Amino acid sequence: MSETSDRLLHNLLYVDAIVIYSSVNQPLVRQLEQLQTQFNISYQVAQSDLNQLRNTILRQLVGLPSATPDTPLVEQLNQHQSSSDQRPWLLIFKGMPPSVFMLEILACMRVFNSRFKVVLELANKDAFNALSLLEKIACPCTLIGPTAENLTPIADKDIPPAGNHKSRWLLLFILAISVLLTVGILYWLYQSNDSVEDKKSSPVSDQQVIKKTQSEPEAPQDPITQSSREMTAAEYFAEKKQQPQLQNDEQVFDTVKESLEQTEQTEQTEQTEQTEQTEQTEQTEQTEQTEQNKSNVSDVDVKIATQPQTSEAEEDKLEPADLANKTDFDNDWFLKQSKDRYVIQVSLHKKTDYLQAYINKHQLTGIVKIYHGQQGYGITTGVYSSWQQAQSELQKLPEHLKAAGAFAKSVASIQNTIREKRKDN
Predict the structure, then answer these.
(1) Using alpha carbons only, what angle is made at residue 166 by residues 165 and 168, rounded to the nearest 5 degrees?
(2) 344 forms bridges with which residues in the sheet?
């Protein structure tokens, strides 16, 4: 599901207000199949015939073939509501309904409270007008999507006359030619200045450079021969005797340098081996930690299987699948359940690495199951016979789980996503 779909579902489940939906890129007609698992839906296109509207809504919500003419919607819903289907009613209007019928909708919301939900699918401009109208009558409402609040009309004087298109294109062409000429002139001036500065910075003529290149380089002179012109014969021979000693010192220095380099290479090799040993140790510890997590999963499964259940949930005592051996987890268990049941989904993960860590961190108890569907791996808790019972248990969860997005989900929707995942495989 997209972020817009998640926001819509959250507002319908937890906010008692009219939802104004203006996201034109994701029309509601594409999301009806997902919403039907949570709500009993009536999708209407706004029209002026009130009796026709009532007939269609009552037929879709409570299965009534025809409505009583000129009788408010709230009275007929109260008389013919079904006790078997406890899903909330969701009334979706594409467009703004008539103002008289809007008053009947508000009456239904006051009488049925959280069981009667309303969504108005409007364009940006109509969404802004609807918000203003609902605020004036102090009706709670929420917005999903943009509005046309910041749009301003274009003045007539700003619209160019139809006959001036050619002259406008001619002006644009002349402007483009002028810009190109200006850029070319500036580039030429820039290149000219660079050439002048280069000539100033190199005063040596080309002929001097050629002569210097053609001249032969002077042979290097022996420092001893060069200095012997200024020393006596005794000093010359004494310096000659010192030359072997200097050569020996250079050899000793080279030997010491080589030994130091070898020592550095040995230290680097030892450090590399030590790093590899450390990495192998860390990998071994991670493997042991993974095996320990797997054993913890088995312990959690045993606790869940041995927990006492009520007679109504005796068939739900199947153990969840082993995380280390299977990839489908509890898919077979979900497929064996009744479609009318509900669970509480507390989390959805893309990978299996953090499933057991999540269960341990939040101390999930009771009937904890994991299913593998198209969107990832879902962690659920509990099994309930109706949506109201699941919603009631949802309110008892810790605040951090409810804030993380836990919600009541039908077993039928989980079975659908499991079957679709298996078809893809």
Answers:
(1) 65
(2) 381, 408
| pLDDT at 336 > cutoff 90 | yes
Q: Which of 174, 113, 100 is nearest to 140 (CA)?
A: 113
DSSP 320: P
Fold of 3-144: Rossmann fold (3.40.50)
How does pLDDT run across 153-179, given as a tens digit for each residue? 433 334 344 445 667 888 899 999 999
**pTM for this model (two decimals):** 0.36
d(CA 357, CA 370): 13
- CA–CA gap between residue 49 and residue 41 (Å, rounded): 20
Q: Where in the chain is the domain with CATH 3.40.50.300?
A: 3-144
Coil, helix or strand for 207? helix
Architecture of domain 309-424: 2-Layer Sandwich (3.30)
CB 367 within 8 A of CB 384: no
Q: How confident is the model at residue 284 (pLDDT cuts 50, 70, 90)?
A: low
The per-residue pLDDT for 409 is 94
172: which strand partners? none
What's the pLDDT band for 26 if we cut at 50, 70, 90?
Answer: confident
Task: Indicate if the pLDDT at residue 85 is higher than 50.
Answer: yes
**Residue 203, CA distances (Å) to 193, 198, 212, 214, 278 in order:** 17, 9, 15, 19, 64
190 or 280: which carries more pLDDT confidence?
Answer: 190
* C-alpha–C-alpha distance, residues 4 and 268, integer Å: 56
Give span(s): CATH 3.30.70.1070, the chain: 309-424
pLDDT at 262: 76
Tokens read off for 246:
């200097």
**Segment 123-143 mean pLDDT:** 86
Query: For residue 376, with 0-12 CB atoms within 10 Å meaning exposed, 13-18 middle and 19 or more buried, which class applies?
Result: middle
- Mention every residue, 6+ apart, whose C-beta is less than 8 A from residue 4: 23, 26, 144, 145
- Contact in structure between 56 and 44 (CB atoms under 8 Å): yes
